[in-house]
Write a structure and sequence with these properties.
The protein is 45% helix and 24% strand. The longest helix has 20 residues, at 44-63. By secondary structure, it is of the alpha/beta class. The structure holds adenosine-5'-triphosphate (ATP) and magnesium ion. Residues 8-10, 12, 14-15, 18, 36-38, 78, 96-97, 99-102, 104, 110-113 line the site of adenosine-5'-triphosphate. It holds the Pfam family Usp.
Length: 128
């Protein structure tokens, strides 16, 4: 059913859970998985940090025996970059956490998951 799954990973606890779900689905459906981490700005320091975060998810997926297709690091507005990358790769499922790294816990959904869920053309699995 899902040939290619995208996990949006920011290193948060919810994103870690999203990786677990993506791995389970990939194994069940024989899907390949792409990872994206969006850096807050295009500075080398931010990109290096994002690369390190993305690698964490990649390692977790590989250790689960998942077919890792690509690990992408971009900079820009996270939701926009996630949606553009999803289109580019032609993924058929996006998996992400309900919350991220922000300390503000007043909202049920973070702004990135909210925006991706509203605008994506493919199903979005939001992991709590
Ligand atoms: P907000 O950022 O709106 O203050 P938040 O940080 O709690 O709130 P989100 O940023 O929406 O919540 O995070 C929800 C999920 O979106 C994360 O678990 C992760 O899957 C994804 N995500 C958020 N930021 C990024 C990012 N920079 N790169 C990749 N994925 C991200
Ligand atoms: Mg956030």
């Amino acid at each position: 059913m899902y040939r290619r799954i995208l996990v949006a990973y920011d290193g948060s606890d919810h994103a870690k859970k999203a990786v677990v779900h993506a791995a389970a689905l990939a194994k069940a459906f024989g899907s390949s998985v792409c990872v994206i981490t969006v850096a807050v700005d295009p500075s080398q320091a931010s990109l290096d940090k994002a690369q390190k975060i993305a690698s964490e998810a990649a390692e977790a997926l590989k250790s689960q025996g998942v077919a890792l297709e690509e690990v992408a690091v971009r900079s820009g507005t996270p939701a926009t970059e996630i949606l553009n990358y999803a289109e580019e790769k032609g993924v058929d499922l996006i998996v992400m956490g309900s919350r991220g790294l922000s300390a503000l816990q007043r909202l049920v959904l973070g702004s990135v998951s909210q925006a991706v869920a509203s605008r994506a053309r493919v199903p979005v699995l939001i992991v709590r």
